[in-house]
Structure prediction request, 74 residues.
Amino acid sequence: MQPITSKELDYLADSLTNEDLLIKQAANAIAHAQNPAIRQIAEHLIQSHQQHYTQILSALQQHAQLAPNQPQQQ
Prediction:
């Protein structure tokens, strides 16, 4: 397994942010929806996006061990 590049890391960080936003939007839809079918769809979306978020985070954690240790500059 190769270390993640900075460009890939930026993409993954953006993906985590996007998944979090989609979870919040679906939760907002549940809070305001009157139609049970809409609520059910939004609940499914929350589960799906939580799974995506967890998978991305897991991939980052697996690659964290490969990250080069750089001395901090003062």
About this structure: The helical segments are 6-32, 36-64. The mean pLDDT is 91.
